[in-house]
Amino acid sequence: MKNNYLKCISAGEKIVLDPIESKELIITARDKFDFVFVSASYGFNVPDKPTEKTEVEVLEIIKNGTLRDIFKSFGKNINRLCLTQSQIKQFSEKYVEWFLDNKGTFFLLKGKNQIFILYVRRNFGMMYIDMCDYGIVNRVLKAKDKRCFIVPKL
User: Fold this and answer.
1) Which of 38, 73, 96, 104 has the fewest CB atoms inside 10 Å of its own CB, making it the most exposed?
2) Rounded Cα–Cα distance for residues 51 and 24 (Å)
3) CA distance 105 to 87
4) How far apart are alpha carbons 154 and 6 in whole angstroms?
């Protein structure tokens, strides 16, 4: 699929998340993540439903754009780009090599009644998470910063 803002950097590699039965919450994964800003009041603390095996892609920004424009450029319903908390946690444990130091990686996550953007960065071996509501995002990302996006393979 053509995307003007992103290029796939995981082409040729099969990145698969295993089925998940548990209802994990990222907010309880303090052993894995250090939270910069995560609030249960956002409806973020809603347990996930079980998931099927899911193949994902790692994409890197190649053109300046807002987060909203980047996610809209997929031309798909935004819900199809979301991962669950359990899947994001599994990705961070199983595929840590895809987190570039201090570059930041973006995920879409569906909460109780809204979609969130999770921003995860690795620094000195620790994973830091920040998040915001998808509906209020106008931040412009610069291609030179080489940020990554993890989405289900469409």
Assistant:
1) 96
2) 12
3) 14
4) 14
Burial pattern 25-56, b for ≥16 Cβ within 10 A else e, equals bbeebeeebeeeebeeebebbeebeebeebeb
| pLDDT 10s digits, 46-79 | 777 888 999 999 999 999 999 889 999 998 899 9
CA distance 137 to 109: 14
Look at strands 54-61 and 15-17 and give their pairing. antiparallel
**What is the token pair recorded at 152?**
């289900």
Distance CA 141, CA 69 (A): 10
CA nearest to 63, candidates 4, 133, 135: 4
Query: Which portions of the chain are predicted below pLDDT 50?
Result: 36, 40-41
Question: Residue with structure tokens 């908390």?
Answer: 85
pTM to 2 decimal places: 0.86
